[in-house]
UniProtKB/TrEMBL annotation:
Belongs to the glycosyl hydrolase 20 family. Keywords: Glycosidase, Hydrolase. InterPro entries: Beta_hexosaminidase_sua/sub, GH, Glyco_hydro_20_cat, Hex-like_dom2, HEX_bac_N. CDD domains: GH20_chitobiase-like. It comes from the Bacteria. Pfam families: Glyco_hydro_20 (PF00728), Glyco_hydro_20b (PF02838). Its EC number is 3.2.1.52. Residues 77-397 form the Glycoside hydrolase family 20 catalytic domain. PANTHER family: BETA-HEXOSAMINIDASE, BETA-N-ACETYLHEXOSAMINIDASE. It catalyses: Hydrolysis of terminal non-reducing N-acetyl-D-hexosamine residues in N-acetyl-beta-D-hexosaminides. This is beta-N-acetylhexosaminidase. The active site is at 250 (proton donor). GO terms for cellular component: membrane. It comes from Actinoplanes philippinensis.
Length: 464
């Protein structure tokens, strides 16, 4: 939701003049602003262009003419993000631009774009044409949870040209949203290996059609490491973000002659290469095993423990625990929810999430994995209004009140209606939201927490 200003002093009955003067004020926080509304006019001061942008958003929501008084506002966290997976289901450029508009409307300022995975490679790379000729397309798509082993039998794919990606980056920048790209490596690489089998370890097969984790990973030869550097060089040329994501998660080692230390060495190699380009590595919390490279930023997803581990190790961290902020997880126990997977994650659950209190915590992001979201409308249904709740978590101070949020939410949903957003109604799913052709697989929270504890044994120095 649009966060409430931190300090509001309005005067009922008196209205401000129509003239608006905007100016930068370096004494304010970079994304902060102050609105002084008087009968003779309005003065907007912002700590940066972003602060002025957010101030104008607030001014528009005060109505016309706005009441007199003062509004002072600034966000709590610098990283207010959402991860969008365009690898499992490709999202055309206009849909990505629309999604950027929606997150900017909620004062979120980071779009973490998951561009590649076992099921699809979505970014062209000069000199490697088969990445998009072959790797961007799969012959069929799994319907629902993988436990049901259903497929639709229809080809699916697509990719972004360099011009497409520059357009997305520029569109986002105008709305003060940073696009952080991710090309997952050395695991989640079956689509690339399908295009260029020499990158793998003997696998010569198609782009993966089923969900889950492929055992087919990069071979880490000098030639393959050269490929990875070329990909990252191109990504650096397209995306101005300080951080470049390499994933680093869920990498099976069954095809490697060595153990997990090979992945740590690979991560260090890619971090050094990015440092030579003036960038920093951004990776999932698996990069903590064996020691994450200096300067790396950790996306802590395997429950709440990895964020604490990252902070103790002195790394900056973005919090995105799956049981708190994975928006592909089911929203209720209603049988009409489309493809219910994961643990129950309600609107109130998201609103109640609180990142650890540390200066190393940059903020938090919601993750939208799209195995079960074949369109932007489906993404909107799963994202909103839970993403409204996260927007308030990362902007507003701690000690929020859900009852107050819930009382304000219906008015905000009217704004989403006006924007044509296909959000989930507070009353529950509509009949047309159900997907009986794509059945889910709900998980119990206690079972998932036990699984996460086992998954993070590497962070505690325990045998895997």
């Amino acid at each position: 939701m649009i966060p409430r200003p931190l300090s509001v002093r309005l005067e009922p009955g008196a209205t401000a003049g129509a003239d608006v003067v905007a100016r930068l004020d370096p004494s304010l926080p970079p994304e902060g602003y102050v609105l002084d509304l008087a009968p003779e006019g309005i003065l907007l001061r912002g700590g940066s262009a972003a602060g002025l942008f957010y101030g104008r958003q607030t001014l528009a929501r005060l109505g016309s003419p706005p009441p007199c008084g003062r509004v002072e506002d600034a966000p709590r966290f610098a990283w207010r993000g959402v991860m969008l997976d365009v690898a499992r289901h490709f999202m055309p450029v206009p849909d990505v631009l629309r999604f950027v508009d929606l997150i900017a409307f909620h004062r979120l300022n980071v779009l973490h774009l998951h561009l590649t995975d076992d099921q699809g490679w979505r970014i062209e790379v000069p000199g490697w044409p088969r990445l998009t000729e072959v790797g961007a397309w799969r012959s069929s798509t799994m319907l629902g949870s993988r436990v049901h082993d259903r497929y639709d039998g229809r080809p699916h794919g697509g990719f972004y040209t360099t011009a497409d990606l520059r357009r997305i980056v520029e569109h986002a920048a105008r709305r003060h949203v940073t696009v952080v790209p991710e090309v997952d490596m050395p695991g989640h690489m079956q689509a690339a290996i399908a295009a260029y089998p020499e990158l793998g370890n003997g696998f010569a097969g198609p782009v993966r059609t089923g969900w889950g984790i492929s055992p087919h990973v990069l071979n880490l030869s000098p030639e393959t490491l050269g490929f990875c550097r070329e990909v990252l060089d191109h990504v650096c040329d397209v995306f101005p973000s300080d951080l470049i994501g390499i994933g680093g998660d869920e990498c099976p080692t069954v095809e490697w002659p060595g153990g997990r230390e090979l992945q740590a060495a690979f991560t260090a190699e890619m971090a050094a290469h990015l440092a030579g380009r003036g960038r920093r590595l951004y990776g999932w919390d698996e990069i903590l095993a064996g020691g994450a490279p200096e300067g790396a930023v950790v996306a802590a997803w395997r429950g709440t423990e990895p964020a604490e581990v990252a902070v103790r190790a002195g790394h900056q961290v973005v919090c995105c625990p799956d049981v708190k902020l994975y928006l592909d997880y089911r929203q209720s126990g209603d049988p009409g929810e489309p493809t219910p997977v994961g643990t129950l994650l309600t609107l109130e659950d998201v609103y109640a999430y609180e990142p650890p209190d540390s200066p190393l915590v940059l903020g938090a992001q919601a993750n939208i994995w799209t195995e079960h979201m074949e369109s932007l409308r489906r993404v909107e249904y799963m994202a909103f209004p839970r993403l409204c709740a996260l927007a308030e978590v990362v902007w507003s101070p701690a000690g929020r009140d859900f009852a107050d949020f819930a009382a304000r939410l219906p008015r905000h949903l009217e704004l989403l209606d006006a924007l044509g957003v296909n959000y989930r109604p507070l009353s529950g799913p509509r009949p047309e939201d159900a997907r009986p052709d794509a059945p889910g697989h709900p998980r119990d929270l206690a079972d998932r927490l036990a699984e996460l504890h086992e998954m993070t044994a590497d962070l505690r120095g325990e045998p895997e």
